[in-house]
User: Which sequence fits this backbone?
């Protein structure tokens, strides 16, 4: 059985501040969204140039916890050895960051390791979240590792593999008609009242786990970042997390203050593309998408609370956003899997369609170094 010592917070963690209005919040109690404006909270650290020299990392643990100086937890984190996933060379200056190798087969493990650790540090005994599938599986696994009671709600058409996985880990599963937005609403109305809600960007710590993808890219590309990052976007935690990490990497002296950042490409499905629509219309926030539909279930997030942060990250990095036709996704998954040997998920199939289109248009140049995220295994969708 796992050790049940409570995790402790990183002494460098100074507090939480609202991404939108800046209001300070105390991290020593459980927090959700900003009490003033209702938008997501960010985790702040007292870090300076030289606090995390890359030369110190070589001998560290092969998980995301190698970046402990910039993570919320100092000791006794809830871990299943998440992160430090391979960057697979796919030829032509393209790499696939294979997040399918994480515990529970998706990048959601990163966020849940951090969020469950923080909830545990604050004395939680129960956690809840709505999910498109992969986040629920990850929460169920980390909840089991921490001996917490877990309740998840998912759309009723979520792939069976995701649902059964949650049950395997002992979670209580509710299936709800509609999308993840309906699942979230259902939990707020009917879910357990004594549980910590770890919904995407409605608590501050999942993003901290996700941001380590950017730190890993820097190490794996020998102290450089790619020119372009193609990221299938639902709630946007990975995108926002990596963008936050780039800011920290500047503070730590890993990046020059004026060095260009990788251009982010946010990829969505044509049947649910609020970030693409917001980007194309020049808006500074996303509007809810009506009648959201796609079989890339992780992208079926009609009203992301962090939509304004995705738009900020795209604009600040000179990036772009692409909506991909549903009919192109499944054939591209098959073609990509057969060409690389990587078991890619539909969300990554969408990302690959976007990359091919951006190469054809010249937006991605032949000399660009490109990283595409395989955010999860395709296995659970079959
Ligand atoms: C496989 C997969 N890819 C991408 C996403 C979207 O991730 P994010 O919410 O970080 O934008 C999800 C979310 O459910 C997912 O499961
Ligand atoms: Zn606020």
Assistant:
């Amino acid at each position: 059985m796992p050790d049940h010592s409570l995790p402790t917070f990183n002494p460098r963690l100074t507090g939480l501040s609202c991404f939108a209005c800046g209001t300070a919040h105390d991290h020593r109690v459980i927090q959700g969204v900003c009490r003033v404006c209702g938008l997501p909270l960010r985790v702040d650290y007292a870090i300076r140039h030289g606090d995390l020299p890359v030369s110190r990392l070589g001998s560290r643990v092969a998980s995301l916890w190698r970046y402990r100086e910039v993570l919320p937890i100092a000791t006794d984190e809830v871990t299943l050895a998440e992160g430090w996933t391979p960057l697979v060379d796919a030829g032509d200056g393209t790499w696939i960051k294979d997040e399918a190798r994480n515990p529970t087969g998706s990048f959601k493990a990163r966020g849940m390791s951090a969020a469950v650790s923080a909830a545990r540090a604050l004395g939680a005994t129960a956690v809840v979240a709505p999910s498109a599938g992969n986040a629920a599986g990850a929460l169920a696994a980390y909840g089991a590792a921490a001996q917490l009671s877990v309740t998840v709600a998912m759309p009723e058409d979520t792939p069976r593999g995701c649902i059964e996985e949650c049950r395997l880990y002992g979670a209580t599963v509710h299936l709800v008609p509609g999308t993840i937005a309906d699942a979230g609403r259902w939990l707020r109305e009917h879910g357990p009242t004594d549980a910590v809600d770890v919904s995407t960007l409605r608590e501050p710590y999942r993003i901290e786990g996700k941001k380590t993808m950017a730190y890993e890219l820097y190490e794996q590309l020998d102290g450089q970042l790619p020119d372009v990052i193609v990221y299938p976007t639902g709630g946007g935690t990975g995108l926002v997390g990596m963008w936050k990490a780039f800011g920290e990497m500047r503070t730590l002296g890993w990046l020059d203050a004026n060095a260009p950042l990788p251009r982010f490409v946010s990829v969505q499905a044509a049947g649910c593309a609020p970030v693409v629509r917001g980007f194309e219309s020049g808006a500074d926030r996303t509007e809810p998408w009506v009648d959201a539909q796609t079989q890339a279930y992780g992208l079926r997030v009609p009203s992301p609370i962090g939509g304004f942060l995705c738009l900020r990250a795209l604009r600040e990095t000179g990036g772009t956003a692409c909506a991909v036709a549903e009919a192109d996704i499944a054939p591209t998954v098959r073609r990509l899997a057969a060409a690389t040997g990587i078991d890619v998920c539909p969300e990554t199939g969408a990302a690959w369609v976007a990359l091919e289109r951006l190469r054809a248009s010249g937006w991605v140049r032949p000399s660009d170094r490109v990283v595409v995220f395989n955010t999860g295994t395709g296995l659970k969708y079959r």
